[in-house]
Amino acid sequence: MKLSFRWYGEDDKVTLEQIRQIPGMQAIVTAVYDVPVGEVWSRESIAKLKKLTEDAGLAFEVIESIPVHEDIKLGKPTRDRYIDNYCENIRRVAEAGIKCVCYNFMPVFDWTRTDLAMPLEDGSTALAYDSSIIDGIDASEMFDRIEKASGGFVMPGWEPNRKAEIMELFEKYKDVTADKLRENFKYFLDGIMPVCEKYQIKMAVHPDDPAWDVFGLPRIVTCEEDLLKIASLNDSIYNGFTFCTGSLGSNLNNDLPKIIRNPKIAERIHFAHIRNIKYENDDLFHEVSHLSSDGNFDMYEIIKALIEMGFDGVIRPDHGRMIWDEQARPGYGLYDRALGVAYLNGLWEAIKKNSK
Ligand code: CS2
Ligand code: MN
Fold first, then answer.
1. What is the tens place of the pLDDT at every residue in 29-51?
2. Ion ligand 2: protein residues whose beta carbon lies under 5 Å
3. How many CB atoms neighbour CB 151 within 10 A?
4. Structure letter (DSSP) for residue 2
5. Ligand 1 test: best mutation among 101, 102, 105, 108, most atoms within 8 Å of CB?
6. Where along the chain do its domains lie?
7. How far is the CA of 157 from the centre of ligand 1 (A)?
8. Which of 128, 144, 183, 280 has the greatest count of CB atoms below 10 A from its CB?
9. Phi, psi of 316 (to 5 degrees)
């Protein structure tokens, strides 16, 4: 495994110097953030990220994400232009040394939460999701809640300037069923895979978060069966997955170690996100520290399954809690994610030594 940390570029409060001091840290996961979705990233922006990362002694290895334009997910005639742009971005990041691109295929929104700073018993705060709230409101109401709760930080997909287009987008998705979305996914994959093969870029689709339909929008990356269907959309091994425990595991019916142990899935796990969540009741889950005993997942079994299946890709801690009075982007502070890395290091070393 190659340990990595997500870094939001020069605006990130967490610095590359801090990241480098985390034990075992090797690589940075980042993206160009100032280009509208669907457009081509400048070579200069990519080169700058690479230089900053490498000057800090870290590897420039994974892009998370190159977002997929809604017209591609909707299957609009304009999608070809956006797929061409996507291919161009793949070429450009590959030329800068990138090996893997994480992305998602969720309509309209990336991860959804009802609370960005839910107080936990120990005084920390964490992101939370309460179905009983979501099930009772529409997207625009949700949008308002997030804007109020974010304390100046923007959640991916919920940028303030998107509010106006949200309801319009909902209208456009009205006739898009899960099967239709999957067809559009195949069209996208068929369009980009030849370029991925040529430039050896492993595409790693991120599971939907939470792993079920929200606000009536279809979601197709939610469980083992979905992953197998995606694998069959395009045979290329470059058509792979980000194994995100917190997202897939939000549906407790998903047995994470079992999914990893499916050889058809394991061979396509190109990137891993590790975090833990805890269900308080049937509706409400919140994020917790990475420790198994703090949440619903058995991290030992998850890491063991990855090791046993020969995972040798890049891995990163996903969201962390806000602890020690840190003020940072929700889910993406330094401290709790760094503690998560320390724990991952421990699990990895112990499992490796025990498996000899
Ligand atoms: C990330 C996702 O913060 C997170 O949960 O794992 O936002 C991820 O970056 C995207 O879904 C990938 O496109
Ligand atoms: Mn994730």
1. 999 999 999 999 999 999 999 99
2. 244, 273, 318
3. 11
4. E
5. 102
6. 2-354
7. 10
8. 128
9. -145, 155
Q: Is 152 left (phi over 0), alpha (psi -120 to 50) or beta?
A: left
> Sign of the C-alpha dihedral, residues 8, 13, 25, 312?
negative
Q: What is the dihedral of CA 246, 249, 250, 254, to 10 degrees?
A: 170
**Exposed (0-12), middle (13-18) or buried (19+): which is 21, by Cβ within 10 Å?**
exposed
Residues that are catalytic: 206, 244, 273, 318-319, 332
Contact 33, 90 (CB under 8 A): no
Strand 115-119, strand 125-130: pairing = antiparallel
What CATH number labels 2-354? 3.20.20.150
Give per-residue pLDDT as tens, 151-184: 555 666 777 777 888 889 999 999 999 999 999 9
Say which residues have a Cβ less than 8 Å from residue 21's Cβ, sequence separation at least 6. Answer: none
| Collapsed DSSP state (helix, strand, coil) of residue 341 | helix
Say if ligand 1 is within 6 A of residue 31 CB. no
Q: Does any ligand 1 atom lie closer than 6 A to the CB of residue 273?
A: yes
